[in-house]
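User: I'm putting together notes for a lab meeting next week and I want to include a structural view of one of the chains we've been expressing. I don't have a solved structure, so I'd like a prediction I can at least talk through. The sequence is below, exactly as it appears in our construct file.
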Amino acid sequence: MTDITIRKAEGTWVVRAGGAVLGETKNALELSEGALAPVIYFPRGDVAMPFLDKTDQVTTSPKKGEATHYSIVTKSTTLENAAWSYEDPKPEIAQIKDYLAFARSDTLAVERV
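Assistant: Thanks for the context. Below is the predicted structure for the 113-residue chain, given as structure tokens.
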């Protein structure tokens, strides 16, 4: 049993970095895990993948599986390992396969519009 909940994130969501919109979707998922802040996952097809470069970083979550990380390349900077995806998630969270999440920061915004 896991304390992870995944539901459709209501409304339209965007991810922005370096002044550019990297993704916009009405099909985002919200993943809640225990007391952690919810994380919004964007369908890969709704993200401008040419701005993302896969890195060598891989992290492992006992509840979710292995996450592949991506850096985001903008006109002015590269945001190292600022996005991640579970390419082969654990069966309990299979619905986030082919989705990407982003690390919110001063230079990267994930917001409902």
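A couple of points you could mention at the meeting. The mean pLDDT is 95. The chain has one domain: 4-112.

User: Perfect, that's what I needed.
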